[in-house]
Amino acid sequence: MRIIKFLLVLFLVTTGVASFSQDIQYAHRVIDTLTSPSMHGRGYVNKGDKIAAEWIKNEFQKNFLQPVGEDYFQKFNFPVNTFPKKMEVSIDGAVLKPGADFIADANSSKGKGTYELHWLISANFRGSLDKIKNKFIVIDKTNITNKDEQKAMDLWVNDPHGAKGVIVVEEKKLTWTVARKKYKYPVIHILKSSVKQDAKNITLRIDEKFCKKYKTQNVVATIKGTSVPDSFIVFSAHYDHLGQMGKDTYFPGANDNASGISMLLNLAKYYSQNHSKYSVMFIAFAGEEAGLMGSEYYVKNPLVPLSKIKFLLNMDLLGTGDDGLMVVNGDVYKEQYALMDTINNQKQYVKSLQKRGKARNSDHYWFSENNVPCFFIYTLGGIAAYHDIYDKAETLPLTDYEDVFKLVKDFVEGISH
Fold first, then answer.
1. N or C: which end of the chain has fewer CB within 10 A?
2. CATH of domain 2-79+212-415
3. Model pTM?
């Protein structure tokens, strides 16, 4: 009986029961808007997250989606470290460019002044610790191949033994993040190409502000099902990104995750015109970059019972696709993965459909941990920009965006029969 049902579902989704092509121009407009300077990197400086949330809510309303709770916002708070104003570093008088030459560690404290540098050539410090007092220690692991020695060097970041601050030399890439804690001293990451190994001094002005209870919000909307309205198909994507590092440097977050929100909104447009028998819910999560905070809060405070979710599809990093699509939890929900794989083989949507097991790498995680059937999908290959200033709308190729949309639509249609 299961085989017959599976074949019927496959027939329905592969014969094009409902035809719809998402608006690629709309996708570009969404990504352009969310990555614009007016969104401040969708983070925690200048209320970038709130500006983005309001814009997404308006897009839901334009497509006649209804709020799930009292309004479209599910509000919560969490601690976060921010850098709202000055972000200045120079080495021996040479001014470095924030984001390109250096970044402040997300956990960094504020710092101001000129300090002598002390280079650590190994983790085993020799001599009196008085040598590093009121200095910045410089940790350069780029020439160290021993992994134990590398780990030992890392310990100096967490305990600089009385030094005034820490510089970490990075070989190839500056990758930023969001922190919910902070050090008691400034920590700066500098590209190896931007600092000479005989550098003597650092001059810096880092303004930092720690917010104990930063108020933010998930954005949640729904389209009522035609015949089974108390069961839900859920689409989710996080809209937050890293925000600003100083007043002049922001992180656009085109692939991560304006691309996922654009897919979410395109699906909202589709289902507003093609109603499902199940209710369809759309959740734009906040706080993902700070440690899956928005999805954790939602699961602990669900707006509909988690048991009523038939399937959740979380979308992140959908702007490439040269090497196909990855399905997290594909090894967990094997029957659903088999359906998606069969559809892709029939329609040849993406180059390769790959799977893996559980992973705490996006907002599906808390749902998965609470027995909600779910996948997390992300595209593979293409540009390498990630958590840096180069993840821009103008360089995001959207290589397989249209085919991913079609695959998602057909998959959801399949599991809905």
1. N
2. 3.40.630.10
3. 0.93
